[in-house]
Amino acid sequence: MDRAQWRQKVYGPYMDIWKIIKILQHASNDKPELFLEYMNEVEKFENAYQGNEFAEFLRRAVLLRADDVIAKLNREDANELQS
């Protein structure tokens, strides 16, 4: 794979998932709009990288689970702050 193919097939999708995950930094049950924005970005990601096997792997393995995991981490942090 040459440098341009690498950027298109691997580096591009990898960097984009970090931008999408960043949306969840302050996500919690009292901010449902962040989850909606997140899911919209996941859909855009899927459409943008259609046919890219690595991007599909990232979507399934990371993006479709990140919202639940990060929301849980945010709840745990909020509970620790209240204690």
What can you see in these coordinates?
With 83 residues, this protein is an all-alpha fold. It has one domain. It has 3 helices and no strands. Helix 1 runs antiparallel to helix 2 and helix 2 packs antiparallel against helix 3.
Compact summary:
This protein is 81% helix and 0% strand. It has 83 residues and is mostly helical.
Q: Could you tell me the strand content as a percent range?
A: under 5%
* Overall pLDDT: 91
Write down the domain tally.
1
Q: Roughly what percent helix?
A: over 70%
How many whole angstroms does the radius of gyration measure? 15 Å
Please report the total strand number as a whole number: 0
Question: How many angstroms does the end-to-end distance come to?
Answer: 52 Å
Are there runs of 5+ residues with pLDDT below 50, and where? Answer: none
N-to-C SSE series?
Answer: HHH
- Number of helical runs? 3
Shape: elongated
Q: Which secondary-structure class do the elements indicate?
A: mainly alpha
Largest sheet properties: none
Topology (elements, then pairings):
Blueprint: H1 3-22, H2 32-48, H3 53-82
Helix pairs in contact: 1-2, 1-3, 2-3
Features:
mainly alpha
